[in-house]
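User: Teach me something about this protein's shape.
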Amino acid sequence: MSHLLTPQIVILKDGTEESDGKGQIISNINACQAVVDVVKTTLGPRGMDKLIHDGRSVTISNDGATLIGLLDIVHPAAKTLVDISKSQDNEVGDGTTSVVITAGELLKQAKGFIEEGMHSQIIIKGYREACQRCVERIREVSVKIADKSTEERRELLIKCSQTSLNSKIISKYKEFFSEMVVDSVLYLDEDLDKSDIGIKKITGGSVSESFAVKGVCFKKTFSYAGFEQQPKTFEHPKIALLNIELELKAEKDNAEIRIDNPDEFQKIVDAEWKIIYDKLDKIVASGAHIVLSNLPIGDLATQYFADRDVFCAGRVQKEDMQRVAKATGAVLQTTVNGISGDVLGTCGKFEEVQLGNERFNMFTGCETTKSTTLVIRGGATQYLEETARSLNDAIMIVRRAVKAYAVVAGGGAIEMELSRYLREYLREIPGKTQLVINGYAKALEAIPRTLAENSGIDATNVLNKLRQKHAQAGPEGIWFGVNVLEGNVDDMYKKYVWEPQQVRINVIQAATEAACAILGVDRTIRNPKSEQAQAEAAGRLDGSKPPPSMGRGAGRGRGRGMNMAG
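Assistant: First, the predicted structure itself:
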């Protein structure tokens, strides 16, 4: 009877919700499956787009990372899929939908094992072993491109870019944009820094009117009256980059001045004018032909520069300033004192050109760092935004292909080969791990199955044909996948559907780690009261909600000063 008298020990706050055991793992898997179902239909060239309206703006996209980021997922386990999708986007640029689908399918296979009583650690061990084998197999069968000629490598990179753009909104123009992307990436320095490629969007005109600028290009900033008198073209100009405000401020906004004699006020005004004129004199004396500043350049300074044939632009965006600095060799200055020739940049040519309804400043012939800007045209803002995201994916893919020097075939071909390879390998393994690796092999078939389903092909028939090809055709059958454009099974390598091996390696590794992380959680503790308090605190910090203690009239009026001493 003594055990009945044992008091209940409470270690968590009142109102805390707690769930654990097999039911909790299955609940987490179900939550992840709901996320997978949202993005599943976007995979492949025949995938559908999603329209997400968040109350302020409308986004039309089929990019996995973009969609999952906009869903505002609150389930703690499902957020893991958001993280792996973002990491895939940051790491390699493409495969964001594939990584979510693969992780979801791995969890779906694990769900059956858990319901039958298998311990989750056995599943995790089997999944990690299968992942390691898959990565080794990808590196073994991938086609190396290091020994190719320059022209062959360029053609191969264009095919990789086209594969990335196949499923995008601009797939009709994939040849046009792929050449533009590959030329832009190959033009860069050896480090292939992505920040050296800028993307500018101009509403209006046809998509085919998009073009690449070998240099830096940005939209004309706000300007004052004297701007039109300034020269708009320079050959080999000297460029000064400033973080200085060249503008007179109204005294009432900035200072309180007490004077005994009205004549003294004029002396103050004269001193302010002298300060700004001294700044302008020093800038012009440095020999700069172009002056760019992060901060405003006022009407006085604009007219002053116009009288001396100097071009100026204020309120230039930070990103554009950094690219100009890197491309021209200019050093950003926070003072006009000591501006010398070694802090000024230069380029082959500067000009201001009219593009649609906008004017753009172009710096070309930059020798310090090779930089490019893709100027894209289109009718609707949403279309331009999605085009920019698509080109970003293509740029990342080409960069990865250049660095990796190895490619694999797409269309689900590599997944089917890995599935076949694992099924052969598991014959050598005893025990429960054999079942787990077989489930992993089955999960890899989710990509070709989804590609077939999204294009209206009989998925069961396609998978049977693919299994037969990969099992019987030997080395020649490695690259057979789903040709969704023609609706059959085909050698995807001969169809030039290629992608860098790093994309597939990253998809498998990230999906496996996410699945293992979710399967390793058997208890969730949640305190709604704490969450509510945190939400209220966040609302007060960002200004969206007033502090609850402030009543009517609180926080206004002069009041009495607070004595902070003691």
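Now, about its shape. The mean pLDDT is 81. The chain is about 45% helix and 15% strand. If you'd like, I can walk through any region in more detail.
User: That's plenty for now, thanks!
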